[in-house]
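[Archive record]
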Amino acid sequence: MNRNSVLRALASIALSALLGAVALNAQDSVTVTVPFNFSVGSNSLTAGDYRVTQPVPGILAIRSVGDNSTILAGTIPGGGPSSAQPKLTFHQYGSYYFLSAVSNGTRVWTMPKSFEERQLLTKTPSHISLGILASKGK
């Protein structure tokens, strides 16, 4: 077996483990309808229905219910206190929206600011925090 074959096999095993963890963690998921296009890290997502799970500590999986596409996003350790209701919180700069936090009703995951959000922050220091209520599970 050459080195590339070994790397592909390891990547396949890691992906299988990750997807298995998502399936096992589905009962802790948060489902939400986002009525606007938004960004998570360097990824742009369209308005629609999303399911958010935590497949492994420090990582959120954000899956579009419509087309089943999934992105993985790192979180900042030590999120603040959670609200009783599951919700996603966004920072709004004009017509740009950035996911800033996810709460499942018992825990909060804070998202790091992307390069694009930091650039907008230097031009427009004020922003609006917008929370969208979500449902647990489903």
In short: The longest helix spans residues 3-24. The mean pLDDT is 82. The two ends are 43 Å apart (CA to CA).
